[in-house]
TrEMBL record:
<dbReference type="GO" id="GO:0061634">
    <property type="term" value="F:alpha-D-xyloside xylohydrolase"/>
</dbReference>
<dbReference type="Pfam" id="PF13802">
    <property type="entry name" value="Gal_mutarotas_2"/>
</dbReference>
<dbReference type="InterPro" id="IPR025887">
    <property type="entry name" value="Glyco_hydro_31_N_dom"/>
</dbReference>
<keyword id="KW-0378">Hydrolase</keyword>
<dbReference type="GO" id="GO:0030246">
    <property type="term" value="F:carbohydrate binding"/>
</dbReference>
<keyword id="KW-0326">Glycosidase</keyword>
<feature type="domain" description="Glycoside hydrolase family 31 N-terminal">
    <location>
        <begin position="8"/>
        <end position="85"/>
    </location>
</feature>
<dbReference type="InterPro" id="IPR011013">
    <property type="entry name" value="Gal_mutarotase_sf_dom"/>
</dbReference>
<dbReference type="GO" id="GO:0005975">
    <property type="term" value="P:carbohydrate metabolic process"/>
</dbReference>
<protein>
    <submittedName>
        <fullName>Putative glycosyl hydrolase</fullName>
        <ecNumber>3.2.1.177</ecNumber>
    </submittedName>
</protein>
């Protein structure tokens, strides 16, 4: 299975870029801004798009296209519009994120472990 790509939806003339990153066994994902769902994002599909959704929906006021894992790294998708995340929901061993665009930029940050901890 390809881990990144470009998809063109010819029905509505939209272009999408996506990336799939591996999730290890027991790896948990946190983040993506304010949500009214479980803190661990594994098994969830999350759209980071700011809109007035109220508290009775999964929509949120504080969407942040950044997640971190218990393995000590984080991913920030640098995109001004909607970013869709599938966190172990389509495939349990992958995090997929996609944007409606012809480019996709993301940054990976890692935490250095201090010796003796």
């Amino acid at each position: 299975m390809k881990n990144n790509g470009y998809v063109q939806d010819t029905n509505n003339q939209r272009n999408y870029m996506f990336e799939r990153l591996d999730l290890g066994v027991g790896e948990t994902v946190y983040g993506l801004g304010e949500r009214f769902t479980a803190l661990v994002r594994n098994g969830q599909t999350v759209e980071t798009w700011n809109r007035d959704g109220g508290t009775s929906t999964e929509q949120a006021y504080k969407n942040i296209p950044f997640y971190m894992t218990n393995r000590g790294y984080g991913v920030l998708v640098n995109h001004p519009q909607c970013v869709s995340f599938e966190v172990g929901s389509e495939k349990v061993s992958k995090v997929q994120f996609s944007v409606e665009s012809e480019y996709l930029e993301y940054l990976l940050s890692t935490a250095r472990r201090r010796s003796g901890t």
